Each structure stands twice: as structure tokens, then as C-alpha cells.
Amino acid sequence: MKILYLLFPFFLLLIQSAAGYSSQCRRRGGYCSFSVCRYPSRPIGRCSGYRQCCRRIWG
Q1: How many helices (H) and strands (E) does the chain have?
Q2: Which residues contact 24 (CB under 8 A, 6 or more apart)?
Q3: What's the whole-model pTM score?
Q4: So where are the chain's domains?
Q5: Which residue, 44, 48, 49, 50, is CA-closest to 27?
Q6: Distance linking the first and last C-alpha atoms of the chain
Q7: CB atoms within 10 A of CB 47
Q8: May I ask the CATH architecture of the domain 3-56?
């Protein structure tokens, strides 16, 4: 039961860092995708370990 008190702050830090990555992606003009970037988008970075930051390409 004591381990739950240790895991809770860890999960809060994990969620907070993921939110930081998505805001960096938005600042670069992109969006976070759970899978590969769909056409006409291309990857410009990572939002987290399994999510990609994608940006649309026009013309």
C-alpha cells in the first residue's frame, strides 16, 4: 500500500512532461498523432515516446 504514495507523484510528473511536449509541438505549428502522420502531413518531432508531432504540408 505504501508504494501507491510513491507512484502517484511519478505519474503526475509523467503527465506533466507529456503536456509540455504537446505544447512545444503546437508552437511549431503541428499536432500530436498517436500513429504515423497521414498525408499531407510529415513528422517534425516527437510529442512523447509513442506519439509523433506532425505538420501539414501545403503545396
Answers
A1: 1, 3
A2: 45, 53
A3: 0.59
A4: 3-56
A5: 44
A6: 57
A7: 23
A8: Roll (3.10)
Cell numbers that stand for 39 in this block: 498525408
Render each residue's pLDDT in the chain as its tens digit; 59 residues. 677 777 777 666 555 555 556 788 889 899 988 888 988 999 999 887 788 999 998 75
C-alpha–C-alpha distance, residues 47 and 49, integer Å: 7
Specify the pLDDT at position 19: 55
Residue 25 grid cell: 509541438
Task: Locate 5 and state its grid cell.
Answer: 504514495
Residue 51: closest CA among 14, 25, 16: 25
